[in-house]
Amino acid sequence: MTRAHNRRMAILRGILDRIVLVVAILVAGCAPSFVAQYRQRVSGRLDQVIADLQPFQQIADRLHGGSLQNLIQHHLASSDATFHAEGAAIQTMVNAEVSLRAMIRGLDADLVHQIGYLVANQDPVITRATWEIFQPGFALNTESLIFAVGCGVLIWLLFLGIWAGVAWLWRAAVASAEPRPPQPRRMPTIR
């Protein structure tokens, strides 16, 4: 390899590593915005489920001592297929309310724990719906800035490590492919 080639590669790496650092910080800086929009979507769905369950809760208050589960069991015990299906639908709404409340509790944390919760427990339907209308934003609060810079630097360091590994493999491959000069043969000495 020539010095000119090494210099060009150093310039290329210098440009690429700065681009990777800036892009990584910008992308990581948009994560808090996605989390906030995801949380808003979960809150909206929870509000809707609560509103949908309200008339059934009023019926349960009047006829089943306030127990929504007793109302559901009454529906499910019916031999009328429509009435039975309504019981299953009400149970589905109750299950959704429990699940959405658990999501809200999981997202009621600092940014790192919110992202950890989303990675481990995200709902694919809500994630897809959030992503479809996602509006990137870069929050300028301390927590978001620290997260963005921290993730950006980690991604940048990963890039530098990969670059160094590939460069080492490249140099090793080139060195093994270069013909070696013949070694002078040594004459055996006679004693």
Oligomeric status: single chain
Number of helices: 6
The proportion of residues forming helix, as a percent range, comes to: over 70%
State the order of secondary-structure elements, H for helix, E for strand. HHHHHH
Compute the CA-based radius of gyration.
Answer: 31 Å
Largest sheet, if any?
none
Low-pLDDT segments: none
Structural class: mainly alpha
The rough form would be described as elongated
Number-wise, the strands total: 0
- Round the mean pLDDT to the nearest integer and report it: 89
Relative strand content: under 5%
Distance between the termini: 45 Å
Quick synopsis:
By secondary structure, this protein is mostly helical. The protein has six helices and no strands.
Write a concise keyword list for the protein shown above:
191 residues; single chain; mainly alpha; elongated
Describe the protein in words.
The protein is mainly α. Helices cover 80% and strands 0% of the residues. It contains six helices and no strands. The chain has helices at residues 3-63, 68-76, 81-106, 111-121, 124-132, 142-177. The longest helix has 61 residues, at 3-63.
